[in-house]
User: Which sequence fits this backbone?
């Protein structure tokens, strides 16, 4: 838990935003209810505060709402049984459903970063290139498979939770 920020989310090395590592950490910790209860309020409060008015969660690359970030935020909120998160979950799911492309996928934005070698903390690096090859690049899910699978996982989690 030493990679957790003061605001409750987790840092990561490879992912651009905090949504992926936060979901993964909360998902692992949820297996230990006594630990989860002490950790999740900060993380889930951060997620609710970060939600955009339209219902999605945005990426730090361009500030636009992102299906990948939104799906991970929804999955994180679904880990809690508390009713206070239901509104944020429903709003996020509505945004995901309305943002689906005609081909059934979801638009992808840069979600992965490839830091230069020997760079210990990629948050301080300022020369990122978008969708370029090699190190120092932010990479998008070009075929939208990882993004779409993450969204479907969130939808299925929500459906499973409702039964």
Assistant:
């Amino acid at each position: 838990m030493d990679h957790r920020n003061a605001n409750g989310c987790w840092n990561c090395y490879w992912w651009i935003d905090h949504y992926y590592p936060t979901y993964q950490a909360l998902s692992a910790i949820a297996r230990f209810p006594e630990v989860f209860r002490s950790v999740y309020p900060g993380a889930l409060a951060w997620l609710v505060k970060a939600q955009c008015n339209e219902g999605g969660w945005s990426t730090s690359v361009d500030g636009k709402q992102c299906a990948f970030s939104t799906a991970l935020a929804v999955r994180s909120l679904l880990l809690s049984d508390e009713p206070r998160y239901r509104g944020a979950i429903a709003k996020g799911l509505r945004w995901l459903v309305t943002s689906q492309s005609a081909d059934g996928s979801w638009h992808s934005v840069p979600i992965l970063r490839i830091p230069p070698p020997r760079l210990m903390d990629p948050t301080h690096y300022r020369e990122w290139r978008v969708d370029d090859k090699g190190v120092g690049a932010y990479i998008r899910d070009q075929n939208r498979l990882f993004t779409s699978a993450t969204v479907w996982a969130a939808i299925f989690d929500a459906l499973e939770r409702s039964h």
